[in-house]
Fold these 4 entries.
Entry 1:
Amino acid sequence: MRDFAELAHLDTEVLRSLLEAGEAPERVRAAWALALRLGGTIRPDLVQGSLTEPDPGVRRHLVVVLAGYQERPVLATLARQDFDEAVRAVACQYLAMISRPEDAESWRVLDERLEADVSSEVRRAAIAYLPPHTPAFLRSAVAARVGDESLDVRRAVADKLLEWAGLSGEGLSEVLVSRVHHEPDLELRREWVRRACSLGGAQALLEALLDASDETLRFVLALYAAQRVRLPWECLRPFTQRGQPELDAFLMDLLEPGAQAEVDAWLLELALRFWRQSSEEYDGKNSWWAARDALWHLQARLEAGHLREPDAWVSALSRKLWEAIAEARPRALEEHASWCDAPEHGECFDEEWGLDRTMESLSWLASQGDPRPAE
């Protein structure tokens, strides 16, 4: 069988003969050779061939050649009527790529395939190659497929909605944000959250998750922390009301630096909650880590100068926390020993908590002002 380089040197009539009666690979190569040699004059033959060619592989190649001729009506026909899903998919791909804003029929065909085609590959292709000038009704149709049964289609929807959001600067689609709650594929959920962050939509996404489950929120906050996202206290405050130590630990890592007495009070209350627990109330490592991190963050804020003038409430909480730690420290050391494997357990405990320095800081904070009683 002759390769393309050999076919390209054949007489035009021989190429026409191969286009009509050669083996499938020869028909493909003959089509390309004739298109390169004759330009638009071979166009009617290729159009006819695309509609009568029996081999779907050859038809796929003819779609590409005809796209170069801007043959949108033929591509639309193949997208709608070809019995082979791969041909319909390629026709949708190139129809999306070459259609202009005024090509209403092309957009209608893509909308139809997106809605009605049984092939997930066709639905995916009808989405993946849509250009920035896609009309509003088709954008809405794309958003409507965000719950498609096919993972590949849902991924194409996510990619396209995020692409459009980045190009327009309009922020994230509400449809896409809502899918963070419901998308069953873990990796796709991760990708949506990462892309949302890259588009500057981290705060908008989190604000849309006020009613999300703890599991969903934990999933998003963990990804934010891994990407070193920083958010204002006003955005994070509602989530501190859940009283979930694991969530609190993430929220601390996401907090933007700055001097806010409300933040300091939250950190003190979080630590105080742990140090006031009885042994029966102790809820494990998450509570331990959250309280430890709260004291670390409080110490860092103090050293950064954010606590030079603590208000009365912060001073009162500092005093109560100092008293709680002094009373519960022996019990905490014993409980730490129950799951810590370090041979020098006491040193490990002190190194993790840094309580001596913390107690000095709390003593100083408690001495400032005339604190009102802390509950």
Entry 2:
Amino acid sequence: MPNFSNWLCEGCAARLGFVRRGVLTILVLGATVDPNGVTRVPCRTCGDGRTWKANAQRSPAGGIASRSSPPLALSSTNRGR
């Protein structure tokens, strides 16, 4: 069993990146991140793409995790579908 998952375009299944231990590594140019933490990754093959939004991770005290906490988990969402 591989220790990573390929992250593919919704339109043509081109490889846009991979996910390992909840961390997305983007392999294409042109990805953008907006102020809300939504990452948009375009597909150069078909023009479609995918988006990801970071999930806020709560600390044991109930507040948002600090910079010394583990990285935020990411969740996949469809772009415009």
Entry 3:
Amino acid sequence: MQQCQAVSSGVRQCPAKSDIVDQIAIVAPLTEMSGNMSTAHRIALFFGREAVLVDSSAVRQDQQILQQTFAALIVLHALRSATVIGPDGRLLIPASRCILVFGGTDVNEYSKDPVHLATMTKVVDVADRCVCFSEVMERRVVSLWPHVRGKVWIIRQSVLIPPCRSDPTAHLTLGGQWMRTCVGSVGSITALGNSTLPVALLPGGLRPVKDQLFAVRAWSRVTVPCLLVLVGSSIDDSYAQRVLREVMALSNVVWCPGLNREALLLLMSEIRVQCVLNTSISEGQAQSIIEAMLMRKPCVVREIDENLDLVHPDRGIAVKDEACLAEVINTWQPDDIAMLDRAERFIREQHSLDVESAQYHNVVLSVN
């Protein structure tokens, strides 16, 4: 169990609303440097000191949590947080309300497995409200569980961006840190030291759904000076080994096994970062793309519905295959300022931190 103050320094902290005074338990897979961790911490900040973070993997061992009654239970990820359900199908953590926040892999990947679907259905059935990040996700949820139609809320994700650092030595310090952890061929590591070489950044833990191989194979066709930097820890070791083998065969790709979130955002803000990529087979709502759009970095994304929801029609670039991605990089043009303006404005208007905070308070209070 963690109190919600345990967040990266420098982020904006939203004050708790006075209309919810009892404690809120937020159950989530709290894997370091993961999107789930970022989302859980952000939701916790919305409720201030009333929020308690609980790692879903440790729910059944946390006697303090199991013996406490909460004003609300917010469950992030239907499958991985299904540990909140006991053998009798009831909540193990006593709470007056239960809010389920779906993860992208819940509806896009795990739902294809009948056993996983049955497990998630138990969580869906006890939830008073279900939160989806977009209309695309809502349609999939309702197709899987038609009976939830009346209790689904769409709450778009926002992001917490630490203040930009204008001190150039911060970038130099970071450069030394992340470069030392990079893995790649001799040619790639040498290229990494060239501070003028443009970089395409692909954040995300190495696992099949993120499909980093899509980008790596595209880079085998890239003929212009541009270094692909994969940033993320190994989540699926077998897949990571496949990625590493192909990375080592190229002279323009490196893998950085993991940075904390503040360091990743600082790296993303560097002037040499030409664009930020997303090559996922499926998504909930890509936080790294939302962050990049807010930071006025061009985004090149795989053409899937969840990505198009962010960049379509004129806020970024969507590619349907590896050849198309390589062509985009090979024919890269100077930044389209109008596109960056549209992207930043869209995120500020549609993915507002204040709006997301208010909506999470409202969804909790909507349950009598």
Entry 4:
Amino acid sequence: MARNEKQKNILLLDIINGKNKNMDYMKFTYGFVAQLFEEKDGKFICTEQSFSAGDQVSREDINGDPIEISNTEEIYFPFNMEQPEE
């Protein structure tokens, strides 16, 4: 079932706060966000953004304790960023 953005944000907050007991662990990928800003009517507006994942990754169980899992044991999930609307 597809979730809307609000439902995804609530689920993520539940996971971070340890309220979702169905999840085995949370993965944190460190990287950076690049944003393109264009000037419109004297203000700068973000018109495009992308996330570049780094090599540093950490994982925690629902209690916030670090765990070790190999990348080869995970199914890849892309980092899709929602683009700004003009």
